[in-house]
Amino acid sequence: MTAVDPDTARRAAKAPRAILAGTDLGRAAWEFGAYACTFPVMSTAPVSPDCQPVLVLPGFTTSDRTTTPLRMTLKNLGYPTYGWGLGVNVGPSDRILRGMRRKLDAIERLHGQPVSIIGWSLGGIFARELARQTPEMVRQVITLGSPFRMQRHAQSNARFAYRLAKPLHARMLDFPLEADAPPLEMPSTALYSRLDGIAAWQVCRDDPSDLSENIEVLCSHLGFGHNLPAVWAVADRLSLPAGTLEPFVPPKMLRPFFPKVSG
Asked: For residue 20, which phi and psi values (nearest 5 degrees)?
């Protein structure tokens, strides 16, 4: 069978089917309940010796509330972890664009070392933009179901809500996203799921290289921040030495949740 070119797959991708979109919230609620029962497992996750600071950016129409389980977990592992403190993510408004940069500047100055940025959905698109604007301040970028390779609005089931928020935006998104953007200068990991009910999974993947990777996980779009396998993958990537990227190997008990991992 001939492999499909990534660019061809991205152009052909459509928004997730109605069955996935309609069940995403319910599946995310189930994942939250499961995480509440199993999160002590995270105490055994690998941890970086230098415990770099971490900035977490929420998805479209959500706020720091939704990233609380993820941030609390990372804090318990020893990472100085911060929400963005900008309220609801309404898209690229002037207040949000300026506020994210100020937050990153403040965290980098406070700790005196580059910051790892985790971006969920639209937050991941912002995270990659920040990393390109200030590469010296960013240690690595991790995206959670972020359609940063989106070719058109029709590839996301959030497009209708996004259009409603357009009057608040300081600039428009140029499609296809990252068409002419250079690769990130630091390690980057893109977590994606074929069970995503909001964004087409094909546009949530990067072109693999020595500094970029994709990790498929069984997860709902709204559950990335409290899905145990996804959070484990985040912690595992944060534990890597600065400037490096090694193959992801999940613990045996979680391997069934990572379809691309053999064994």
From this structure: -75, -40
Q: Could you tell me which CATH number the domain at 6-257 has?
A: 3.40.50.1820
What's the full length of the chain, in residues? 263
- Is residue 193 within 8 A of residue 220, CB to CB? The reply is yes
The phi and psi torsions of 221 (rounded to 5 degrees) equal -65, -45
Helix (H) or strand (E) segment spanning residue 32: helix 18-38
pLDDT, one tens digit per residue, over 86-128 is 999 999 999 999 999 999 999 999 999 999 999 999 999 999 9
Alpha helices in the chain (DSSP H): 6-12, 18-38, 68-76, 94-111, 122-133, 159-164, 228-238
Instruction: Report d(CA 65, CA 58) in Å as an integer.
Output: 9
10: left (phi over 0), alpha (psi -120 to 50) or beta: alpha
> Taking the complete model, does pTM exceed 0.85, yes or no?
yes
Q: Where are the domains of the chain?
A: 6-257
Query: Taking the CB of residue 219, how many other CB atoms lie within 10 A of it?
Result: 28
Tokens of 212: 């970029």
